[in-house]
Amino acid sequence: MKTVVVGMSGGVDSSVAAYLLKQQGYEVIGLFMKNWDDSSVTLTSNCTWEDDLLFAEMVSKKIDIPLHTVDLSDQYRKRVVEYMFAEYERGRTPNPDVLCNREIKFDIFIDEALKLGAEYVATGHYCRKEIIDSNGAPVYKLLAGKDPNKDQSYFLCQLSQHQLSRALFPVGELLKPEVRKIADEQGLATATRKDSQGICFVGKVDLPTFLQQKLQAKKGDIIEIPESYYADLKKSDDLNELSKAYSYKREDGHIMAVHRGAHFYTIGQRKGLNIGGTGKPMYVIAIDVNENIVFVGCGDEHPGLYRKGLFITNDEIHWIRSDIEMRMDESRKYLVRIRYRQPLQEATLIKKSEGIYIVFDKPQRGIAPGQFAAWYDGEELIGSGVIS
Predict the structure, then answer these.
(1) What burial class does residue 235 get, using C-beta atoms within 10 Å of its C-beta: 0-12 exposed, 13-18 middle, 19+ buried?
(2) Which of 63, 214, 286, 384 has a CB 3.0–4.6 Å from the CB of 295, allowing a cystine?
(3) Structural domains of the chain in order of their starting residue, each with its CATH number
(4) Could you read off the pLDDT of 100-135 as tens digits, one per residue?
């Protein structure tokens, strides 16, 4: 009998994952990870790690599996939270959930599982794994979950072949309503529990309050860039030009309001600007952390919100399938997304000596440096990288 350690989060997905694996004949061990215990920055008090642990204990008892706990809060702060702070300080937009999976759930967690004698680890992610043969060696494919509304493959876009070789995704073939139905039929305490929201393991936070743990608030100007600014800009098919974000100066627009720190804002953000009377919503279109300026544009169709392409440096490129990495000067058509739940977008990837350029068939809204771009071949997630 093979042993699998399931990451028990106190949610319905991991609960059903553990139940299904036991039904399939595995020796199942639950492992609860305590990764964050600072409730002072969360917006809700009913989603603490103590509550999560209580639900994990109730489910483990119900399905008759042992539950171990491990405190990884120090590693989580160093490898995920500190990365967040550093990225926001640079005016970039990180995705802590992607980092959490790469650095915690499928790295340190695997090490903890091996200590318990497990061959595999499992989570409640809505994605699938497939094994193929390549010249006599196994290659692991990461596929989208069957539920198009819950597919979480994007969050796993930085996993390696080693990590995938140890991973199982029991609910990846199911729809969310099916998962809740199984939980209800088995009398699991998490059957009707709401899904967690916000930052992985932290919860829902007010971002400026969270970031002010390390980043100082500093008042600066919010400057509106008018649409007329773009009238004289020359369009170019050059890859460097297509992939560059717009760069603005103070004199390109006019002051609309005052902000509390440019690094607290992200490109595409609408809320929290405190600008009224414009008739149309205002959006962040650029951030200058050196000058402490937030640039905004008025309206959903403002040109500053859209870009045709993006660039990923060589050191930020990650191939899940190293056997199909792109060669120099090669171009391929893939489906790409730059954020979770974004519909897949048709694009061309072009490999150059300095990195990979991604040129979309249609301009994309809210591309921000620090985000992860992930590319797919149909249902399979092939690779990803951090946007420059």
Answers:
(1) exposed
(2) 286
(3) 3-210 (3.40.50.620), 216-388 (2.40.30.10)
(4) 999 999 999 999 999 999 999 999 999 999 999 988
* 100 is a catalytic site residue: yes
Residues counted in the chain: 388
Would you call 47 a catalytic residue per the annotation? no
What count of Cα atoms within 13 Å lies in the side-chain half-sphere of residue 313?
5
Residue bearing tokens 């042992």: 66
Rounded alpha-carbon distances, angstroms, from residue 303 to 3, 62, 172, 225, 286: 54, 55, 38, 10, 12
Token code pair at residue 125: 């992610």
pTM: 0.93
How far apart are alpha carbons 89 and 95 in whole angstroms?
A: 14
Structure-token match 């600072």, residue found: 38
User: From the candidates 47, 127, 200, 298, which is the catalytic residue?
Assistant: 200
**Would you call 286 exposed, middle or buried from its count of C-beta atoms within 10 A (0-12, 13-18, 19+)?**
buried
CB within 8 A of 152, min separation 6: which ones? 125, 126, 127, 145, 340
Q: Please pick, among 47, 100, 127, 157, the residue that the annotation labels catalytic.
A: 100
- Report which DSSP code applies to 25: T
